[in-house]
Amino acid sequence: MTGQHGKTPNSAEAGDISLSGIWQIFPQYLHPYIIIARLDRPIGWWLLILPGWWVAAALAPSASTALGIMALFMIGGIATRGAGCVINDMWDRDIDRRVARTAQRPLAAGTMTMGQAGLFLCILTCISVAVLLQLPPISWLVGIASAPLVILYPLAKRVTYFPQIVLGLTFSWAAPTAYAAVMMQLPEPALLVVYAGTVCWVFGYDTIYAIQDIADDIQSGVKSSAIGLGRHLKAGVGLAYLSALILWATGFYLMIGAGIWLAGLAGAGCHFIWQMRHISADAPQTARRLFVSNRNCGLILSAGFLASQLSG
User: Fold this and answer.
1) pTM for the model
2) Exposed, middle or buried: residue 20 (CB in 10 Å: 0-12, 13-18, 19+)?
């Protein structure tokens, strides 16, 4: 099968697989595991853990407690994100073979079997559970409750043009989990407002990410908000980002009141404006850069909450 530009899917230009830097020193037999868990692409786990970092930094009784919870979320986030990627590739292996950017992923390319992927998934899940067990029991229930969303997201791409909403519900789950870990109770309404804002943020940045695959997704029958929004794509992302800012401001203000964290929120707003100035459905390479930049946006918010924590 040839790629979109007449090259085979195994050509270096066609795929999104290229281990570099420190990852190249690992034995060759480990490369498929690194690739399928996206360990060489940290942006995914950064975006997964950042909502938990905000909540921990904002609500923890001390800076040391906040940093301890943030460290656990980093370890658990890397494992959980890896497990989600394995599940995604197990569902999508046939679709991935037809998309130039994903044709070299291990299951699509045949460098890993479904059995190997399943075993690796079990290992990653055990690591995630081990981290979860370090947190208060109430957070176990909250964390485990996200499992159906992790499993269902790959299916959403087949039935709706807005699977980014399901992804948002999944990638925002660190916020209620962190709340349960810090407060030792189920999330209050104000936290659910923050959660809703984070869903909007994820919807916005993943719509930008989906710009890269518009042509291949249309050909393969895969749905995304980048396709569903059509000529209203930029407006849709802008509305999502604006909603995120409003909901974050409302939810965190109700929980902790005014403080230095508002400077972090303002910084995130400026970052959103910068993204909106550069977004274009006709610029997939720019879309990748804008998507990745959301880690910096999340770190700006984290810095604001940590500053408030230290000043308190």
Assistant:
1) 0.82
2) exposed
